[in-house]
């Protein structure tokens, strides 16, 4: 019962992708991957994408800002990680910069301090240098800037 090549018409693809984009903010790369899975010929992709952009279902600026604020608020990611993730999704650097400025600077610093203190209290390592290294690795992996991380580590008392 498996149809290996079900061809979807352009209006069907548009309808499916309008729902897909209305459900959650998407970037163009997400839409192109979804289109490839529909079986629609590649020549028709631009028609669908331009329709989605014209009808404001697909807006990379809105996606970048929503993504940045969401990953910061929910996952507690730093600007470096957010930037790398957006870049990996094909978002232009000017939109990435715009999205990163949407994150409130005061809130950013408060979140960093809270996350660092919380993690510091969770690390059970006795050796202070190993403990600092573990904290630095954790914060850097989450995308916090090196100057923030090392500035905070230098202020820690044994």
In short:
With 158 residues, the protein is mostly helical. The protein has helices at residues 10-23, 28-38, 45-54, 60-75, 79-88, 93-101, 105-122, 128-141, 146-155. It is built from nine helices and no strands.
Describe what you observe in this structure.
This protein has 158 residues and is mainly alpha-helical. It is 71% helix and 0% strand. It has helices at residues 10-23, 28-38, 45-54, 60-75, 79-88, 93-101, 105-122, 128-141, 146-155. The chain is elongated, with a radius of gyration of 21 Å. The model has no long low-confidence stretch (mean pLDDT 93).
N to C succession of SSEs: HHHHHHHHH
Mean pLDDT across all residues, rounded? Answer: 93
**How many β-strand stretches?**
0
**Helicity range of the residues?**
over 70%
Summary keywords:
158 residues; mainly alpha; 0% strand; elongated
């Amino acid at each position: 019962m498996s149809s290996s090549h079900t061809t979807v018409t352009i209006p069907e693809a548009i309808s499916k992708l309008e729902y897909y984009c209305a459900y959650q903010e998407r970037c163009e790369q997400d839409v192109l991957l979804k289109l490839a899975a529909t079986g629609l010929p590649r020549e028709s992709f631009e028609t669908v994408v331009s329709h989605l952009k014209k009808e404001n279902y697909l807006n990379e600026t809105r996606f970048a800002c929503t993504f940045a604020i969401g990953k910061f608020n929910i996952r507690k990611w730093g600007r470096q990680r957010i930037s790398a993730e957006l870049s990996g999704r094909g978002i232009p650097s000017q939109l990435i910069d715009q999205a990163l400025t949407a994150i409130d600077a005061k809130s950013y610093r408060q979140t960093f301090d809270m996350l660092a203190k919380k993690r510091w209290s969770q690390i059970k390592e006795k050796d202070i240098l190993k403990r600092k290294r573990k904290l630095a690795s954790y914060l850097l992996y989450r995308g916090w800037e090196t100057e923030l991380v090392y500035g905070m580590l230098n202020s820690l008392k044994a």
